[in-house]
Amino acid sequence: MTTSTADGNLFIVAAPSGAGKSSLIRALLDRHNDGSMQVSVSCTTRAPRPGEEDGVHYHFLDVATFQQKIEDNAFYEWAKVFDNYYGTSRQVIEETLRQGIDVFLDIDWQGARQVREAYPQAQSVFIMPPSLATLEQRLRSRGQDGDDIIASRMAKAQSEMSHYHEFDYLLINDDFDQALANFEHIVLARRQRMALQQVRHAAKLKDLLANDG
Ligand code: GDP
Ligand code: ADP
Ligand code: 5GP
Known about the structure:
The protein is an alpha/beta fold. The chain has 9 helices and 9 strands. The strands form 2 sheets. It has a 5-stranded parallel β-sheet with strand order 2-7-1-8-9, sandwiched between helices. Bound molecules: guanosine-5'-diphosphate, adenosine-5'-diphosphate and guanosine-5'-monophosphate (5GP). Guanosine-5'-monophosphate (5GP) binds at residues 17, 42, 44, 46, 77, 79, 81-82, 86-88, 106-108, 110-111. Guanosine-5'-monophosphate binds at residues 17, 42, 44, 46, 77, 79, 81-82, 86-88, 106-108, 110-111.
């Protein structure tokens, strides 16, 4: 992807299913509802859960359509997770970043690897639950998956968590508000990076340094 320093920041967020990725991203967007950040809506072949809306939580596609998009190079990254395909549409990400909007990708570790490779400026955050027992409890309390799905997600949690050290930041989602505050610090710090501030405040910096030398 061709980028400029004024582009939005790309954040990769990964965690074992049920650790609280979606809740943390949603809460952060609610606190910054000024259009400065967006979550990417992935495509998936999994069935919608009760209450999930096409185009809001995911773009729900059949396998043939998903595979056609792979062939058309329409995905920025894609992966098979829990026997379903998941992928991030290339066009939406590129356009949103170009508008200077920060983008969050709620993706698995395989997708995270692809994005880091394609876009090394991306910052990646891994979210851990405080314990395995809490993770299982959260999956159950969400009340959207049956016992067999919960068991397979718990089994997959170990392999997802084993990739945590590939990420730039680690958050433990024990107390939700504390985890949210820490997440927000990561995002806001990234917005103040020198290269971006130099573009944003070019005129001010010129004035401030007018008498230099
Ligand atoms: P959750 O784990 O409860 O949020 O369940 P989901 O069904 O929403 O997500 C399943 C898995 O697919 C998670 O590991 C997500 O991070 C991953 N995932 C979701 N969207 C994408 C995507 O666009 N690309 C990739 N690579 N992974 C995704
Ligand atoms: P993920 O997107 O990682 O699969 P969710 O955001 O759907 O996880 O969270 C799973 C469940 O755990 C949800 O019911 C959510 O409300 C709950 N949850 C998330 N974070 C916390 C927390 N810190 N304390 C208690 N419950 C939480
Ligand atoms: P769920 O089915 O519970 O919504 O998601 C299961 C897993 O798939 C989560 O770990 C989620 O992060 C991952 N996932 C969701 N969308 C994508 C995506 O677009 N790409 C990749 N690689 N993983 C995704």
